[in-house]
Amino acid sequence: MLQDNPGAVKKKRRIGRGIGSSKGKTAGRGHKGQKARAGGSIPLGFEGGQTKLYKLLPKRGFTNQRHKTDMLPINIGTIQDYIDMGRLDINKVLTMKDLCEAGICTASSIKHGIKLLGKGHERLKTPIRLEISRASHEAIQAMEA
Question: Using CA atoms, how far apart are residues 67 and 69, in angstroms rounded to an integer?
């Protein structure tokens, strides 16, 4: 039978269960005050009535959350590795579906498409035809060379 060594598991101290528990009466909260009350937590960033630091600082920048397009980055070197393994067929135009079937990415990870990046372009030795959403400038140069 599996069991812990004696003394390995220590019982949790029950708070507010009488004087003998060593955490009775005020249950470690001290006497009175805001932090002694139920639900008396002080909000994050509260400075005792002094203007909060984040309100003193000016607003900066903007957010592009509503219009951002999450592209899945894939490097040329990775595609070359999968060609060397024999997982990708270079005789046809490679689509995003082919890349998923080869195991480079999953269909659920592609939100708005795939962007081809140039990392590992020095390993590229076979001419590849790709049909993807976007490509970096370096990746385009490597593919055309």
Answer: 7
